[in-house]
Specification:
This protein has 203 residues and is α+β, with helices and mostly antiparallel strands. The chain contains 2 helices and 14 strands. It folds into 2 domains: 12-47, no CATH class; 60-198, Glucose Permease (Domain IIA) (Distorted Sandwich), CATH 2.70.70. It starts with 11 loop residues before the first helix and ends in a 5-residue tail after the last strand. Keywords: Cell membrane, Decarboxylase, Lipid biosynthesis, Lipid metabolism, Lyase, Membrane, Phospholipid biosynthesis, Phospholipid metabolism, Pyruvate, Transmembrane, Transmembrane helix, Zymogen.
Length: 203
């Protein structure tokens, strides 16, 4: 189900207001420290911005804003990973319609999400049957927030979670999707819920 609300992801005020208020209080006493804290508070709030998106009518869309960092085959299926930079929106979206079969948290390390070591990082796996999503924490990320639960239905482009201060989201596409169906390449910038990463010949 789509979360109602304004243009901020959950947690924005919890992370942003304390340093912002502390900065306001401390600025008259210690300008540099106060201004730094206030700037950190504003940055945390902006980090959790949640703009509206208009998904296309077909295809598998990017699950995250950022740069395509992974395209590889795994046991006959293609994995596409999107690395989210600090300036990207960190709200994650469903690549296609589906039914959530399971949501699983896996503890792990917090290595940089663009490195090979990130395969052992903490993550939340969202299994939607035909495709699977992996929300992967990075070295700075410590909070993965799934929005969906087992048994729920999702639509293409619908919000399914966000990662506070991190870092990569992968989609494992169905077996029927081939490399010729991909519409992105490594290094390409994509927009969650809007950029088509692969056409779906089964639609």
């Amino acid at each position: 189900m789509e979360l109602p609300g304004p243009s901020l992801a959950p947690g924005a005020l919890r992370y942003g207001l304390p340093p912002l208020f502390a900065g306001i209080v401390l600025t008259p006493l210690s300008g540099p420290i106060g201004l730094t804290l206030a700037a950190l508070g504003v940055a945390a709030i902006l980090f959790h911005r949640d703009p509206e998106r208009e998904p296309p009518e077909s295809g598998f869309v990017a699950p995250a804003d950022g740069s395509v960092s992974v395209i590889r085959e795994e046991e006959g299926r293609i994995r596409v990973g999107v690395f989210m930079n600090v300036t990207d929106v960190h709200v994650n979206r469903a690549p296609a319609d589906g039914a959530v079969e399971s949501v699983t948290h896996r503890a792990g390390a917090n290595k940089p999400a663009f490195s090979k070591e990130s395969e052992r990082n903490e993550r939340v796996e969202i299994d939607c049957g035909e495709y699977e999503l992996s929300l992967i924490a990075g070295w700075f990320a410590r909070r993965i927030h799934p929005y969906v639960e087992e048994g729920e239905s999702v639509e293409r482009g619908e919000k399914v979670g966000h990662i506070s201060f991190g870092s990569r989201v992968d989609v494992l596409l169905p077996e029927r999707v081939e490399f010729a169906d991909l519409r992105v390449k490594e290094g390409e910038d994509v927009t969650a819920g809007e950029t088509v990463v692969a056409v779906d010949t089964g639609e």
